[in-house]
Amino acid sequence: MSLRMKFSILMLGTFLTLTACSNNKSITAGTDTHEAQSSPPDSILSLSGEVLKPVVKTDEEWKKSLAPQVYRVLRKQATERAFTGAYWDNKKDGIYYCAGCGAPLFDSKTKFKSGTGWPSYYQPIFEGNIKLIEDNTLGMSRVEVVCARCNGHLGHVFPDGPEPTGLRYCINSAALKFQKNPQQ
Known about the structure:
Radius of gyration: 17 Å
Number of helices: 3
Number of strands: 9
CATH architecture: Beta Complex
CATH class: Mainly Beta
CATH topology: Metal Binding Protein, Guanine Nucleotide Exchange Factor, Chain A
CATH superfamily: Peptide methionine sulfoxide reductase
Shape: globular
Distance between the termini: 49 Å
Largest sheet: 6 strands, antiparallel
Oligomer: single chain
Structural class: alpha+beta
Order of helices and strands: HHHEEEEEEEEE
């Protein structure tokens, strides 16, 4: 295979990866357009309703405490390749937590098969546990999803999800830790 053909295949793969989690519709960052369980304003909650304190570390502390791929995703806004993460096809019942700070983020009951190769959810457990930030990198206008407790990059949200919210939280597996329900 020629170098030109290899380059063309690499560029096509990069393009497909970048566009798999984007579309032409828009979501306004910083607004609540879904109906997750309500939490007091500016509160990050545990599953029991306890208010969690923000986690603040230096970049060096994060680098030491996280696995390399988790660090790249959470702290450097990297994206894992589609269909390679641990949870894109996970069908077990349980809760998905932030891999950086342990904040509960998504319930498996809101997970759905989006066909993108990344875990997708239609709403977070608590609205206050995530933040939405305008993201105009890579020549696209998207809305980034970050953990409200540690400001770790989780993925992006798009307005093409199923009812009841119409949203698709497209999240990197590396940004998550899964704990299955004890009944399983």
